[in-house]
Structures are given as C-alpha cells and as structure tokens.
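As a warm-up, study this chain.
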Amino acid sequence: MKKILFESKSKMQKNERVINKILIILGVISILTTIGIILSLAEETIQFFRSVSIVEFFTSTKWTPMFEPANYGVLPLVMGTFLIVIFSSVISIPIGLGSAIYLSEYAPKKVRKILKPVLEILAGIPSIVYGYFALTSITPLIRSIFPNASVFNALSAGIAVGIMTIPMVSSLSEDAMMAVPDSLRLGAYALGSTKFEVATKIVVPAAFSGIAASFILAISRAIGETMIVAMAAGSTPKLTLNPLESIQTMTGYIVQISLGDVPAGSIGYKTIFAVGTLLFFITLILNILSRNIVRKYRRAY
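Now compare it with the structure written out below.
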C-alpha cells in the first residue's frame, strides 16, 4: 500500500503565500492591460472629437470619412451591427435553448456524452471558415429564394454568426439547467407533471439567470464578430433595415481601415478609435446588464 506523505505545515503555508502572490501579480497585469487599452482608446477618441462634432457622430445618417465631403455619422455602422445581432439571435437563441433542454432533460447519458462535445466542436471552428461558408453556401441559397439579394448581405452574415454562437447558448444554458437540484424535478413529477412541464415550468425558470447570461454573452459575441461580417456582409455603410442589402458593421469598418493605406494620425485613422470606443461601451453595457440579471435572478439551493 502506497504511503501518503504530508508536507509540513510551514512548507504548505510558504507555498500558499507564493501562489497567492502569483495570483495577485496575474490579476494586476490583467487590470493594467485593461487600463492601457482604455487609455489608448480614449486618447485618440478625444482627438477625434476635437475635429468632429459629437452631435454629428451620433445623429448623422452618412458615414463617408474617406471621401469628400466627409461625413462622420456612425448610425449606419450601428444599424449594420444590430442587423447582424438580430438575425444571429433568431438563429442561436431558440436552437441553443432547445438543444440545452434536450441535453439536460431528455437525452440519455450516453447520448449526452456524445452530442455535447459534437455540438461544442462548432465553437472551435475558426470564424473565417464560417465566413467562407456564408459566402459560398448560405448566400447562394438566399439568392435562389430572393434573386434581388446582394452577393454581400446582412442576412447571410447573420445566419453564419447565429450558427457560430449556438454552442455558447447551448452549453452555458445546459450547465445552468444541470445545476438545478433533482429534488425540484422529483417534486414536480410527484405532483403528476409531465417531462415537458418539468422542463419548461420548473427547470428553465430555476435556471433563468444562467440562461439569460448565455443569451447576452452570445449577443456580445455577435456584436464583436469580425471575420464573418467582413467576408459576408460587405463594406457598404448604409442605414437600412433590408437584410438582403450589403451593409457594414463597426468591426467590419475597423478591419477595412486597419488594412488600408490610411496615414496614422489622420482623421480617418482616428475614426477607428472612435468606433472602437463606442463598441467598447456597448459591450460593457451588455456585460453589466448580464451581471445584474444573474444577481437578480440567482437562486441558491
């Protein structure tokens, strides 16, 4: 029989102190990195707004910073981003939640062990592959139904982003449902509830905080997605609600300008930071909303 050797108390305390210091250093590095990113964004953004009116930035409906006359209205980019969010959410939220309910409440253990990793493989596929898939498979399908649709359109990109975010919704929601105690399920079954009633009226409400957080994280992921929208949605900053037209998102614009020949320090260069700062605040608001929802509806069992 193998002996278990315990370290002395003083040695264990010494190791604990070393680990504690390493974790503090890592935490400080994370905080300083975040502060550095914020400061770099803020510096260029402030310089941008010294040249461009903040009222024009948020109210003008034209975004042509590289042309004459230059217009700096960010609304077309914001609208393009939210078109992607809307169509990706229509895909990812119902399919992801349905998959989570099946895996948590209906699937046998053997089936769950196979299906969950298979589903999560979708999350490991590079986004450029989804962009290529949108361009070569989804877009031709859309154009066969709607012949007037542009080659680059918001609907194709939104569907591809939705497929990409399904595993995030499914996996996080399923984890939240699995955390619901079996005593709640058994109590409902004892009162004569069906499996569907237990899933929808007991488990989903009990796991609502985790499920809602997965929805918001998927929306944040869709807002920040770059490669798919750059490949499939096009680069036309247009204020439109038509998903069959070419649009441009905030991330798509940043990629376009970053890869171009815009001189550093020019007003066109500073637009990247102004759009990036707006993107940062939108994501920050969603994260705060997610934390508030989790805190409000969290239930301790």
